[in-house]
Specification:
transmembrane helix; mainly alpha; membrane; transmembrane
């Protein structure tokens, strides 16, 4: 028979198994991806409620991509699937998201007069800053990775 005390201390399987580890939530990348997901979802809801509903597709796609990368990094899929260059994909996602959010935020604030469009524009400017921080950090990681790759075999480049 099992000890009843050990059965009580073990975590029951369920929704808690879907939550990311605390170490990832405390990391800078985890916090940035969580902020990107939350801001994209808020912007998506604001655009649905506004007159600028034609802009709702960009925040929806960015929300889904940020959510996917959040769970991919949390479950360490980036270490299991080596065929995808994860930092480069994340860098391109952040650059395009920052540019798109900046453009649609300017359009939403200047062209539409309803409150939801203005709120979406303001949250869009905040998302632009968060995505810009993320692509700056990811760019620095890419540069260090490329410097390590080019310094591995300097003799091979000289003989060719």
């Amino acid at each position: 028979m099992e000890d009843p005390e050990s059965a009580e201390t073990a975590a029951p399987p369920g929704l808690s198994s879907l939550l990311p580890p605390r170490e990832f939530l405390r990391s800078r990348k985890g916090q940035l991806l969580l902020a990107e997901s939350v801001l994209s979802f808020i912007i998506f809801i604001c655009y649905i409620a506004s007159l600028a509903a034609s802009f709702m597709m960009a925040p929806l796609l960015e929300f889904l991509l940020a959510l996917f990368l959040f769970f991919a990094y949390a479950s360490k899929l980036n270490e299991k699937f080596k065929g995808v260059h994860w930092p480069l994909a994340d860098f391109l996602r952040c650059v395009t998201a920052a540019i798109i959010y900046f453009a649609i935020s300017i359009a939403a604030v200047s062209k539409y007069s309803d409150g939801a469009s203005k709120a979406a524009g303001v949250f869009g400017f905040a998302a632009t800053i968060v995505f810009a921080i993320d692509f700056y950090i990811t760019f620095n990681d890419l540069v260090t990775f490329l410097k390590q790759g080019s310094s591995d075999s300097p003799e091979g480049h000289k003989t060719e």
